[in-house]
From TrEMBL:
It comes from Spongiivirga citrea. This is UDP-3-O-acylglucosamine N-acyltransferase. Pathway: Bacterial outer membrane biogenesis; LPS lipid A biosynthesis. The gene is lpxD. Signal peptide: none annotated. Homotrimer.
Length: 342
């Protein structure tokens, strides 16, 4: 896809300085700009690169004043960073504006779907599947029986959505994500073996949820595993059966949450956090990366460590952790002195 400086300025409501017909077909950093690329200048420390960049078009702030000659065409806007972000969003919308049904696909006779759907090759829609309008399902995707998908949902290649799952409007499910696989439920028998406990519930995503690549969300044993409105999950996260995650909580990669734990709204959870089952974490909680949570957590707590301590307590204690060898040496010397005195 090619765009002219004039078209870009129209989208951003910006003013052109240079060639309005300059064409771009790719994006670049300003220091790596090449002919045909679009870049931006927002941070003043990158200003020297403007005079050497080969980018065809550069977005700058309206108040930018050049101190040397340059070859790039400028588009002046109120806020270069926000405008570039807006352009990225627009570019993604254009790039992903696919519609139609490719072949081969499997669509059950009892499945229904709305207008402007895109269904990529080798996708599977099971019995009684219901899909809304403007849904994009990329190739090699599995949608199990009785799944409901709302409007404006995107499911990227290779995702698997098991039966009875419910996906709300405006959700994004990235490649390799698995929603609705059985929870980890086994009961020991008299022989010391483990019998599987049937997992008969489902997974529910409310509106505006993003699921990262390779993330797994298990179906409930009974009832539902629920991801509330606005939750953002990074890649390679494990959400166990009957977990509930509150509105607008964000969780970074490789975090694991054990069964039946309830997490509040507006929480921020770092990468590689481990959370035990059957506990409650309040609202507005912040958990630093690699922490281990084994207790209930009150609203607004900030935690770090394993087992996690209060963030301030952890940092104070860490000063002493680093000095432990020195303190041990001192204690040994004192012990020797005391023994000598005896």
């Amino acid at each position: 896809m090619k765009f002219t400086a004039n078209q870009i300025a129209g989208i951003l409501e910006g003013a052109i300085e240079g060639n309005p017909e300059a064409e771009v077909f790719k994006l670049s950093k300003i220091e790596e700009g090449a002919v045909g690329s679009l870049t931006f200048l927002a941070n003043p420390k990158y200003t020297p690169h403007l005079y050497t960049t080969k980018a065809s078009v550069t977005i700058v702030n309206k108040n930018f004043e050049a101190e040397a000659d340059f070859s790039t065409t400028l588009i002046r806007v109120d806020d270069a960073y926000k405008s570039f972000s807006k352009l990225l969003e627009y570019y993604n919308q254009v790039k992903m504006n696919k519609t139609g049904i490719e072949n081969p696909v499997y669509i059950s006779e009892s499945a229904t779907y709305g207008d402007d759907i895109y269904l990529g090759a080798f996708s599977y829609l099971g019995d009684q599947v219901v899909i809304g309008d403007n849904v994009k399902i990329y190739p090699n995707t599995y949608i199990g029986d009785n799944v409901t998908i709302g409007n404006n949902v995107t499911v990227f290649s290779g995702a698997k959505i098991y039966s009875e799952s419910v996906i709300g409007d405006n959700c994004v499910i990235n490649s390799g994500a698995i929603l609705g696989a059985d929870g980890f439920g086994f009961a020991p028998n008299e022989k010391g073996e483990y019998n599987k406990v049937p997992q008969t519930g489902n997974v529910i995503l409310e509106e505006y949820v993003d699921i990262g690549a390779g993330t797994t969300i298990d179906r409930a044993t009974l009832g539902s595993t629920v991801i509330r409105r606005g939750v953002k999950l990074d890649n390679q996260i494990q959400i166990a059966h009957n977990v509930e995650i509150g509105e607008n909580t964000v969780i970074a990669a490789q975090t694991g949450i054990a069964g039946s734990t309830k997490i509040g709204k507006n929480c921020m959870i770092g990468g590689q956090v481990g959370i035990v089952g059957h506990i409650t974490i309040g609202d507005n909680v912040k958990i630093q990366a690699q922490s281990g949570i084994s207790r209930n957590v009150k609203d607004n707590e900030v935690l770090q460590g394993s087992p996690a301590l209060g963030y301030g307590d952890y940092n104070k204690s860490y000063v002493h952790f680093k000095n432990l060898p020195r303190w041990v040496d001192k204690i040994h010397k004192i012990e020797k002195q005391l023994k000598g005195d005896d």
